[in-house]
Every structure is written in C-alpha cells, then in structure tokens.
Amino acid sequence: MTAAQLHDIGKRRAWVIWLVALSVYALAVFHRSSLGVAGIMASERFDINATSLALFTVLQLVVYAGMQVPVGVMLDRFGSRAMLLGGLVLMTAGQLVFAWSTSFSGAVLARAVLGAGDAMVFVSVIRLVTSWFLVRQAPMVTQLTGLTGQLGAIVAAAPLALLLDALGWTGAFAAASSVGVVLLVAVLVFVKDSPYARDDQVVIIKLRALAQSVRTVWGNPGTRLGMWSHFTSQFSATVFGLLWGFPFLVAGLGWSEKSASTLLMAMVAWAAASGLGVARLVLRLPYWRSMIVIVVVAVMATLWALVLLWPGAPPDWVVVMTVFATATGGPASMVAFDLARSFTPVQEMGRANGLVNIGGFTASLLAMAIIGVVLDLVEPRGMASYTLDDFRLAFATQYLFWGFGIVQVLRYRRRGIEHLERVHPGAVEQLRAGEQFVHPGIGTEGV
Q1: Which Gene Ontology terms of cellular component type are present (predicted)?
Q2: Which of 20, 87, 115, 279 could bridge to 121 as Cys pair (CB 3.0-4.6 Å)?
C-alpha cells in the first residue's frame, strides 16, 4: 500500500529541509578540515612528528569509513533526522574535548569521536535529497550539497587561522563546538525524513538479515562502481585540504602562511565553481558519468606530474592549476552517489551510499598515512627539516591510488552496464539518449 503524500516534492519545504541539513554538513566539513591550518600548531602543542600528526586525521577517517556500513543500516532504519541529531551530539562533544586536550592521547580520542559523528552526516543529507527532490533535480542538488558543504572548509582555512591567533587553541575550538548546539535545535524544528505519511524504512531485527541486506547491496555492481569512482577522485583533495597541503606549501615551497591559507580557500571556491560544470555534464551525459570521473582524475594526475618533476620549485601558476585540478576531484567524487542512485531502490540507498562513501575516505586515510610515513623515513628530524624533494617523494605515492582506482572504475563500469541490460532492459538505451534512469524500486539487484 502506497503511503499518502503530505508535502510537495522539490518545493519550498524541501529546500528548507535541505538547507538545514546542509548547514550540518558544512559544520562537519569544518570540524574535519580544522587541522588543515592547525597542523603546525598541533605538532608544537603535542610535540609530535609527521606520522603522529597524520594519526589525528587518519584515525578520524578510519572511524568515519569504518562506520559507513552500520550508519547506512541505521539510516535506512531510523531516518536522516535521527542520524543528523546523533552526528551533531558526537561532533560537538569531540570538538569540545579536542579544545581542552593537552595530551596527544586525549586529542586522538577526541578526533575519533568527532569522526564518528561526521560519519552520520553526509549520507543522511544525500538520503534527504533522494526523498525530497525530483529525479531531474537530484543530480544538481547532490552537486550543490558537495560544493556548498565545502563552505566549512573555507571557514577552516584563513578564518580559523585568524581565530586561532585571536583566541588561542582552546578558545578557537571551543567556539567552533558551540555551533553544533544551535544546529541541533534547527534540525529538531525543521527536518522531516520524508514527504510521505510514513517512510518505507527497512526494519532489521536479526543479524543474519542485516548481513544479507548489506551483502545484496554490495553485490550490486553499481554500488561498487560508485565506491571505486569515489575512491579514485576524492582522496587527493582530502589529503591536500585536510592535512598535507598547508605544510607542503609552507615548508616545501616556502610560501607564507597567509598565502597558503588563501590558496586553500581558493581551492574550495574552485571546487564550488567546477561542481556546477560537473553537475551539468552529469545531467546531459548520464551514460558517461564514470568516464567523466576518469577524465578529471587524468587531468589531476598530469598536473601533479608537472609539480613533482619540475626542476626546482615550480612556478606559482603551475601550483595553483594543480591545486584547482585537485579540488575538482571533490565534485567528481559526488558523481559516485548519482551512479549508485541509478542502480539502487530508495529503501536501500542508506546502505548503498554508506558503502560508496567508504571508497574515498579509505583512500584518503591510507594516502595520508603513507605520506606521513614517507616523510618520516626520508627526514626523521621533523616538520622544520622537510625539503621540497621530501614532499615530492611523499606525494608521488598518490599514483598508486589513481592507477588502481581507474582500473577498478573501468572494470565495474562494464559490469554495471551488463547488470542494467540484464535486470532493467531499456535502461542503458535511456542513459545513452541522455535521459535519467529512474530505478523502479524492484528487481534482483545483487549479483
């Protein structure tokens, strides 16, 4: 029996709900990105080397990635509103503890709690987009979610650096944690899970049923295509923006802290601008979505080769172009969720998006850790002793992830096309014609 529709889809109420949820996502990105400009200060505050500094963000992303499957299941069971509230509580608590921590172990624990809260936010917002917007609106709103959410990264760049100078470590991070309280009230007042009288959420009682439901979603090649697309395109921007970009620009290239912060802000602004272009391409060329991801990654890898191979310090324009290309990986990674949407019925979207989201953050945490280990191996004396050549060697490890990821995207693109031809006849022709494929909500989706 179809539930009664109480509210219009894609109209004013949908936009209000999305804006409130988007504010939570922007806050999550701010918390996640805050070490991007505070990394050098953190190394001094806790007296740690590059590997230990990387542990802050790596552990945060390990928790984030590890929670994606259980978060996806809980999202399908309890809905976006409950998950956003839970995420806000954990992020606020984690950032408040981080503000007052003076020991490395306490600060690491705080970042882990923050990562747990962060894990609940993005997939919840994407679930709201799926529920509240029309099919023709969803790709653009998904891109807008990614690029507008990056406002949090802008605030985590120069403004946070100014706040740290004015209030110090404890004052700056304590002030940041207080924003979560305001958004808790906003979510309680405005956010509703579905425009229908009841949302057809999946009730999971037994562990075996849970395992089978996740196995079915994972067996869908569209889920894996989305995950590997996210894996390949997202990690470089995350690694650069969250942790290693600022030290690379300041310690490696000799830029001033102000110039480095400005470029990180410009990086986010470029991600917003390029996201609009990526969204238009996805709307016009749905059949070629995964190839759009590969083209973006190829451009990114080519420009990084210029930076890594340039004799001496590369010109500023080369660095800026490379950083902007890297930033475009963020919007490209959002294509992964649009891919999963074509292959997945709405009642399974939480689990599918959770699995997709694992991809980029797994690559990010591995790349961050490897870069930190390489830097410590080539220069054990710490941050103040790193040279441009040290950073070049460390950043070259990105090509391992790009190469492997592109192979997997091409592999599951082929499998995904075969799957649609078998399970949903006519869907591939529809996508080739430039039309969005609306999943009918039925069909044997696992392999």
Answers
A1: plasma membrane
A2: 87
The CATH number covering residue 323 comes to 1.20.1250.20
Q: Hey, is 5 helix, strand or coil?
A: strand
Measured in whole angstroms, how far is the alpha carbon of residue 10 from the centre of its chain? 24
The residue written with tokens 């210029």 in the block is 306
- How high does pLDDT run on average in the chain? 84
Q: Is residue 7 part of a domain?
A: no
- Per the structure, the count of domains in the chain is 1
Q: Which domain holds residue 85?
A: 12-194+205-432
What is the band of 261 on the pLDDT scale with cuts at 50, 70, 90? confident
Q: Which residue has the tokens 């310090």?
A: 313
Asked if residue 322 has pLDDT above 90, the reply is: yes
Nearest to 57 by CA among 93, 97, 110: 110
Short-list 103, 267, 123, 110, CA closest to 176: 110
Cβ count near 256 (within 10 Å) = 10
In this structure, are residues 81 and 20 in contact, taking their beta carbons and an 8 Å threshold? no
| Cβ atoms of 244 and 365 closer than 8 Å | no
As a whole number of angstroms, the distance between CA 322 and CA 329 comes to 11
